[in-house]
């Protein structure tokens, strides 16, 4: 409900829009908009939907947005996804990129880094979340690829 306001706050704090404000494909259909930094290196994607056309989607998308928390930056508050949901969204993004023959190595590196820092309990919780959201098969397939690329043990 504060999607447009979030974009204005970002623009007021050193970001520029990655897509035009009247672009219906991005704002209405995709439900997201990238904001590009002028001074920093952190790109911000503002979402009010998590469905990516041509990619797997969570069965319970509302949970992705409901289980969020508040993060403070630049004297402002921003909603951020639960870490497990954010990681699943990265898996969805890599799946979409692979399908469309786009660059996906940055997503792969992000997933490998986050997963390497997870405890066994974190991993079990994350895998349970993936199963609940109907994304376990995608997770397994991508993990098999990443295990080869990053020489990760198969113990996960």
Helix and strand arrangement:
Layout (H helix, E strand, L loop, with lengths): L2 H10 L2 E3 L6 H7 L1 E6 L6 E4 L13 H6 L2 E5 L2 E5 L2 H17 L5 H12 L3 H13 L3 H14 L7
Antiparallel strand pairs: 1-2, 2-3, 4-5
Describe, in plain words, how this protein is organized in 3D.
By secondary structure, the protein is of the alpha+beta class. Helices cover 51% and strands 15% of the residues. It has helices at 3-12, 24-30, 61-66, 83-99, 105-116, 120-132, 136-149, and strands spanning 15-17, 32-37, 44-47, 69-73, 76-80. The strands form 2 sheets. A 3-stranded antiparallel β-sheet has the order 1-2-3. A hairpin with a 2-residue loop joins strand 4 and strand 5 (76-80). Helix 4 (83-99) packs antiparallel against helix 5. It is globular, with a radius of gyration of 16 Å.
Spatial extent as radius of gyration: 16 Å
Strands of the widest sheet, in order across it, are: 1-2-3
**What's the story with the biggest beta sheet?**
3 strands, antiparallel
Helix content: 40-55%
Mean residue pLDDT: 86
Oligomer type:
single chain
Number of strands: 5
Order of helices and strands: HEHEEHEEHHHH
User: What fraction of residues sit in β-strands?
Assistant: 5-15%
Amino-to-carboxy terminus distance: 38 Å
Q: State the helix count.
A: 7
Helix/sheet category: alpha+beta
- Poorly predicted parts: none
The geometry reads as globular
């Amino acid at each position: 409900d504060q999607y447009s306001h979030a974009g204005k706050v970002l623009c007021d704090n050193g970001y520029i829009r990655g897509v035009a404000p009247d672009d219906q494909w991005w704002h209405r259909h995709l439900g997201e908009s990238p904001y590009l930094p002028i001074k920093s290196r952190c790109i911000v994607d503002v979402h009010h939907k998590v469905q990516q056309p041509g990619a797997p989607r969570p069965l319970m998308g509302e949970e992705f947005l409901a289980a969020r928390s508040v993060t403070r930056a630049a004297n402002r508050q921003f909603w951020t996804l639960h870490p497990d949901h954010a990681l699943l969204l990265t898996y969805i993004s890599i799946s979409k990129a692979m399908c469309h023959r786009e660059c996906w190595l940055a997503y792969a590196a992000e997933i490998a880094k986050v997963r390497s820092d997870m405890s066994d309990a974190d991993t079990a919780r994350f895998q349970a979340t993936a199963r609940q959201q109907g994304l376990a098969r995608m997770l397994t397939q991508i993990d098999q690829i990443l295990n080869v690329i990053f020489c990760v043990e198969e113990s996960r």
